[in-house]
Design goal:
By secondary structure, the chain is mainly alpha-helical. It has nine helices and two strands, in the order ααββααααααα.
Amino acid sequence: MSGVTNTTTAVKAVFSLNVITAAVAFLLFGFVVVIVTLRVKNRRISSISLKRSSSDTDPLKTTLATHICLVVALFCFVIAYATQSAIIALQTRSESPVSVTPAFSYYYTDGSSPESSNSESISILSFVQGFGTILFTFFLTAAVWLHSNNLTTNGTRVNTPGTLSRLWNVLILGGILLSGFASWGRGIHVRKDSDVTFPNVINGDRVARILYILFRCVVIFSSTSVSIEVLRLFSMLKEKGSKDTTSRPLLARFVYVVVPLIWIRNAFILVNIVLIYQDVAGWSQPASQAVTFLLIIFGQLANLTILGMVLWGAWSMGRTAGNGREDDDSNYGVERAQVDGSS
């Protein structure tokens, strides 16, 4: 048995990228937990209705809902890639192919798949990783949708999302959960009498494979729909919002960074679906390595960047929306202490 320290450079790089991804996500998770804790402690929870708004700069929406989605999304993301790192470490001990995604493995030996002495642990971890990925995908998509609508409401004084948008997005977000847990549940059913991993189930069981492909297609459809709504909201903000509103540059970041990242990530999800039906064991090392790192860069690292952008946007909105009057977590406690001291 070799282990990570004695394996190939490419596998070490894959392992390192997974560890770095989990570590950065954990730091972001800690940051958003602090933000939510401060907001709850300072009772900055509810938003202001349009009728109760005292001026054109009072914000109508707060960032609490977005931050809660980010807390869950980042927690699940950390779990997913911490377990993925553990899976790779265990796989290298028996020189097994390294799992990059549930649909693709990197073969760095002679293409064989030796039986691992850690098969039970790898199997359990693979299903934990799959469970975390489903929840992460759901809450990340929800966070993008919520944050873009909140920015638009504060910038235009028009309450969004509307009823149709709410119903539609609840439907497509629910589709992510239903299709994801259907494929995961089928995997659990197949696994009950063996130590098979989630990727093995997808490759070996026709029903699980179809359900997994359905899940990935629903993710593509849902996230694309949300990204199109972001573009529509940005157009609405430019048309109905004032030119100096702080919501405009914040939503512009979504349009010029997050939306393209979602589309590129979705393109590689399609690539991943195609790879399910490919015999990657016989690929050359350069081809396997190229696909491996492309999937990592435009998969997990793209998701990490999207998480970071949503967190940055929500934090910035909390500090600057409404021309600085909204809910600056860093200043609210000081302002409240001054009021209490003068009363």
